[in-house]
Each structure stands twice: as structure tokens, then as C-alpha cells.
Amino acid sequence: MAEEEGFAEETHAEEEILIALPTVQIPPHTDPGRSLVAVAVLTRTRASELLRQMETVTELASKWIGVFKLCAFDGNTFYVPAEYALAEPARAEFTVLSPSFTTPEIIKLVRPQIGIVPGAVIWEAYDEQNRFAVTTIEMNADTLRAVARGDILSPGMVLNAQRYALPAEPMFVECPGLDEQIM
Questions:
Q1: Backbone conformation region of residue 139, classed left if phi is above 0, alpha if psi is from -120 to 50, else beta
Q2: Range of 67's domain?
Q3: 115 near 124, Cβ under 8 Å?
Q4: What's the domain count of the chain?
Q5: Is the residue at 167 inside a domain?
Q6: 177 lies in a domain?
Q7: Which of 30, 139, 171, 180 lies at 20 to 30 Å from 78 by C-alpha?
Q8: Would you place residue 90 in the very low, low, confident or very high pLDDT band (cuts 50, 70, 90)?
Q9: What's the pLDDT at 41?
Q10: Taking the alpha carbons of 41, 139, 131, 105 in that order, is the dihedral positive or negative?
């Protein structure tokens, strides 16, 4: 229909950036050699969407004491045993994987979620029998901006995830009665 009206429809897929993030398992796993790595699949569009949601949650957090995290189900992440992620990222680092990355094993986890907080995102999921949960380290907004802009994140790069630090300025400036609640 669009072609009949003189419009050519583009159907090219965006380049996917695969980012391997270390996870923390709660309760801690009993086999120290069996840690999991989350592989987040990002595109420029997805990174931009996450940044917009981050702006929204930051604005809400500055107005309401109880709002600090936005959670949504997210199917753009999968989990693999750390030994299949080429090089297991250190606790505060992530690794950029090749777009053609393959793995012999994907760990089936349920309720995959993305948590968006002011300045960072995390991914969480649960074991099918609800025996444990895994959470990634925080990936900061600067990394999402780099993906959204199309900056070069070459496969094999290992970068610091730069865990989010509270801003120097207080986030809750106009909150009457806050001092009494936290003292």
C-alpha cells in the first residue's frame, strides 16, 4: 500500500550491540565456578528509549519521595554461564561481544526485568523454581548514550560500567518534612 502511494518502505534492521554484564546471584550460588553473565541486546533506538525513560524516572524522583525505580519486563536480555562469555567481565566492568556471538548454553530464567533508576539501568531475572534471582551491575547513562549515538563499541572492548554515584546536589530539594522522616 505504501509503495502504491509513492513511499518506499525501509526494512533494514538496526545494528545490535551485545553487552555482557556480570551478575550477582541471591542467595549466592554454591558452585563458585558457575556464575552467570547477562547479555543485553541493545540498538540505538532501544538505548534512546531507555534514556528517555531514565529522564522520566529522574524527574519523578525529584518530585515524589517514593519514586526511584521504573521496572518493566524485558525480553532483550539472555543469560549464559560465565565461561561461555569469552571473558568474564570483572565486577564493575562489561564486555562488548561480537554481533555474531553464539553460545552452546542459555540459562532459562523467568520474569526478566529491566530496572531504570536515575543515571543507570540494571537487569534482573529469576530461576524457574524461584530458588534464586540474578541482578546485573548498574550500567550508567553514559554507556547508553554511547550506544544511542552510534559511538564505536568494538567487540572485545572491556569497559568500566561506572556505577552510578549520587549527584553532588541533593536530589530531593523541595520535600517538606523529609528531615523528620530520615532523622
A1: beta
A2: 17-162
A3: yes
A4: 1
A5: no
A6: no
A7: 30
A8: low
A9: 94
A10: positive
Give yes or no for a cis peptide into 81 (omega within 30° of 0): no
The string of DSSP letters for 126-144 reads: EETTSS-EEEEPPEEHHHH
Question: In DSSP terms, which residues pair with 17 in a beta bridge?
Answer: 42
pTM, full prediction: 0.76
Which residues, including other chains, have CB under 8 Å from residue 109's CB and lie 6 or more apart? 79, 125, 126, 127, 128, 134
- 178 inside domain: no
Beta bridge partners of 77: 40
- The amino acid at 55: E
Quote the longest CA-to-CA distance of the chain: 68
Grid cell digits, residue 49: 528509549
In a domain, 9, yes or no: no
**Sign of torsion, CA 60 62 67 69?**
positive
Answer yes or no: is pLDDT of 95 > 70: yes
Q: How far apart are CA 177 and CA 182, in angstroms?
A: 9
CA pair distance 179, 145, nearest whole angstrom: 35
**Alpha helices per DSSP H over the chain:** 44-63, 141-149, 178-182
- Grid coordinates of 95: 564486555
